[in-house]
């Protein structure tokens, strides 16, 4: 639905801060932590932030002005005239990666339109630190009613041509608690002064409202200079995005956070941030080894740059635009390649590695750009207790920036030589759902000064890379499981049978998990054999598991001496009794080579091809029944076919003849022509030729299974081979 254009400048009713009151009432009704209200300007049509409450406006600086086609929640809400709900950081990274890369923190968000039936006036967003569930129906009704009511007031004001004025942001002052009366307040000050560690309070904008003498002494700044100024402005060596990131995480997540920072003298201080809806309380103390504060939360060793040189990065918007490709990454290899192609060149890195951990040891998940791969791979399996930057970041979840080899040697003295031939490194923690999933290492071939802007961009990018890596690790684990399952279920070799040659091939799909439900089998019977080929719907572990059950059932019914039509009927009944929602096609063939005949039963499966000894090829379109697992009363009539010595049967799944843009009948005819021309080749060579065109393609939407059977005289040549 398009947006109905509103006035070029939306007027606001006189008589008080209407926008601020409307926003705060919505926050109070839903216990939201923060929010912002945008007004729509029609020329050009952009949303402009009019008022924000609960958080510093700087947090939303990239979205002060939002175009209506932008992929951000407030634009979507107004453009589509609906409530947009984002339940947490994973959903934000998936749906709005450009927001997640700047604010990679655990918070929920709702965005709503401010519009009447005929005109659009703006949009609202609200945030919560965390929620166990979505908004209730009552909360949704309250928010919708508040937005509708505001739109009506704006519409009435528009008719009066009243001017609009942005209102001041609502940054609540820190609440002051303590003992009642002046004496109680004085005693509280004395008590705080006696504490052996530093205490200070910050408002939502980072300004110091109170600091005790211990804090001033540790920070090296008088109380008079601290009070009223932003902490990182009063203490320049705290002006580092790694530390500010902890401040943002505390406010947005409303959970205590901590970090360790190095003073210019080299000794380290620990900072513990306790947030509330009105600001933060900060405890400052001397850091003690190991690098964990008294509350047990991992701390950082990050040292800020000595000189704030101009950033060598491109703009943040350009970097963000490159990260959209991460949403399409499937496996870990894809993530590593995308970081190498899209991100490392942008930030000026010459090499990268992605590290993970398992069983208390470092794992090298992938790397690019190293002239000597062993320089990275030798760290695979290193205990996480080793004092290296890679293990430290995996343990603590905090970034490490090393601007030169000398800094590496000073901070990690056990490193006697440069580990990989590079001269500067950024070790970025990859944290998803509040837990570290890995580390991204960017390497530079010359000493590199990481500026404040550069550290901010790299730290933000790590949040989005973490979501992609988390998904990729899960995908790869499922992929290994599925392939192991399928390899265990398909026959490794085919039995040698008198009077019969056999060969088979299997190619997985290249989309999805490269795993599916195609199967084949060749089962010896008294005086002959039973051949089966089938295709279970789907390309995942469930399909592979059901395929194994179907194959086992067919083998069991064959061993019991059931006729082909009965084997199909009982297998169909089994699938229905299993209660699965998947279906399967199947073709079952009972062969007696010496008799020159075979019996065929089909369940929704493509018809086989028969090549006669004279080279003629026929499609055996025999009668059959529906797919297995659909109709419990279905029958599967059997058809007898001639199988003279020298005859060749080709059993296949539909992936062999189904190609996008190609008619299946034309594809089947082409397969018949290839079979007529090459049918006298040895079966292994013929099998390779029949699937060769599919094997050479870059993409296969479906699995392919082929089973070739050639009748021979009993004293003739006998050979058989598996999938090869």
From TrEMBL:
InterPro entries to which the protein is assigned, alphabetical: Bact_Sigma-Reg (IPR052016), GAF (IPR003018), GAF-like_dom_sf (IPR029016), PAS-like_dom_sf (IPR035965), PAS_4 (IPR013656), PPM-type-like_dom_sf (IPR036457), PPM-type_phosphatase-like_dom (IPR001932)
Ranges of residues in domain PPM-type phosphatase: 497-711
EC main group: hydrolase
Any Pfam family the entry gives: SpoIIE
Keyword vocabulary terms for this entry: ATP-binding, Hydrolase, Kinase, Magnesium, Manganese, Metal-binding, Nucleotide-binding, Phosphoprotein, Protein phosphatase, Transferase
UniProt xrefs under SUPFAM superfamilies: GAF domain-like (SSF55781), PP2C-like (SSF81606), PYP-like sensor domain (PAS domain) (SSF55785)
Keyword Kinase listed: yes
Domain (GAF): residue spans on this chain: 331-479
Function: Primarily acts as an independent SigF regulator that is sensitive to the osmosensory signal, mediating the cross talk of PknD with the SigF regulon. Possesses both phosphatase and kinase activities. The kinase domain functions as a classic anti-sigma factor-like kinase to phosphorylate the anti-anti-sigma factor domain at the canonical regulatory site, and the phosphatase domain antagonizes this activity.
The protein's name in its UniProt record: protein-serine/threonine phosphatase
Species whose genome carries this gene: Streptomyces griseoviridis
